[in-house]
């Protein structure tokens, strides 16, 4: 943890641990989900999953295995209080039923611990998405790039 962070920033840093990306040799899978109910105060929810794509190359056929996946999930407005679930072992299944450029089916299973509420919670996410490659230097704070900790828990508008 960087020195000089206040109490709230320390909690934000912990919630984002394992989700911030730096340039290296691995290709990562970054899943970012955000939802909110318009007109409902404090309804913003975030889920971030980051894992290493083993053996992935841009031209490779097939689906790579996802290793060392981490998950963070909670209310975007309460991350600074430590009210979020953390898991350092999320299981991820990827499936692409058609050709290389078709949408990918994603299943995430994990159990996260919330140190604020002193409880664990099971997560099962299933969705379809169109993956895209983004260079590290172009990632926003929400996506896992360097940036303002306070902007790490939702996409900027």
Over all CA atoms, what is the radius of gyration? 16 Å
- Total DSSP helices: 1
Report the end-to-end length measured between terminal Cα atoms. Answer: 28 Å
How helix-rich are the residues, as a percent range?
under 10%
How many individual β-strands? 7
Total tally of structural domains: 1
Structural classification: mainly beta
State the low-pLDDT regions, or none.
none
Shape: globular
Strand order of the largest sheet: 1-2-3-4
Order of helices and strands: HEEEEEEE
The major sheet is characterized as: 4 strands, antiparallel
Bin the strand percentage.
35-45%
Mean pLDDT: 86
For the structure shown, list the relevant keywords.
1 helix, 4-stranded antiparallel β-sheet, mainly beta, 157 residues
Overview of the molecule:
With 157 residues, this protein is mostly beta strands. The protein has one domain. The chain is built from one helix and seven strands. It has a four-stranded antiparallel sheet, with no helix packed on it. It has a three-stranded antiparallel sheet with strand order 5-6-7, with no helix packed on it. The chain is globular. The chain starts with 6 loop residues before the first helix and ends in a 28-residue tail after the last strand.
